[in-house]
């Protein structure tokens, strides 16, 4: 199996993180190559707990639910690539890019590392289903107002990044109905990506 690159998109509540982990498990069953999994939001939260001024500003912004400037998520995954990509591993990105500006920079990195035939996976669910799923989680930030803001932000900011890859001849684009069971979504995703 040649080294593969997967970029996951999906609104809050779509289950993209779960699907990314299930894909990793399936890849590991089929191939001995290392799998790099980068969840940008998690790395940003880890960074926010460090003790630099930039970390403090990041923590403050995250705490207020503000948008971080583009350079921070780009720096997070750029540093990760520089330190970890050796050329013979599978790469799975979850949570990047979040804006059109980040999409073109990620594209330049993918081309620089000569990642062939990258696959973009968009887990599609309606706002109503996302809202129901998020309210059912009962997390502190899963209230009606915050959920509505996140879903609106996704449509305004992330959707153009998705369109960038969907309309780019260098990428395989797969849209999957995420409103089914975890197993059904995973089965379709694996069939369309690893066959």
Question: What is the assigned CATH homologous superfamily?
Answer: P-loop containing nucleotide triphosphate hydrolases
**What is the average of the pLDDT values?**
94
Structural class: alpha/beta
Q: Describe the global form.
A: globular
Number of helices: 8
Q: Oligomerization state of this entry?
A: single chain
Query: If strands are numbered along the chain, what order do they take across the biggest sheet?
Result: 2-3-1-4-5
Radius of gyration: 17 Å
Assign the CATH topology.
Answer: Rossmann fold
Tell me what you see in this structure.
The chain has eight helices and five strands. The model has no long low-confidence stretch (mean pLDDT 94). 56% of the residues lie in helices and 14% in strands. The protein has one domain (5-39, 89-194): P-loop containing nucleotide triphosphate hydrolases (Rossmann fold, 3-Layer(aba) Sandwich). It is globular and about 45 Å long. It has helices at residues 16-30, 40-48, 53-63, 71-84, 100-112, 127-137, 144-166, 182-194, and strands spanning 5-9, 35-39, 90-94, 119-124, 172-177.
Which features does this protein show?
single chain, 195 residues, Rossmann fold, five-stranded parallel β-sheet, 8 helices, 5 strands, 14% strand
List the helices and strands and how they pair.
Layout lengths: L4 E5 L6 H15 L4 E5 H9 L4 H11 L7 H14 L5 E5 L5 H13 L6 E6 L2 H11 L6 H23 L5 E6 L4 H13 L1
Parallel strand pairs: 1-3, 1-4, 2-3, 4-5
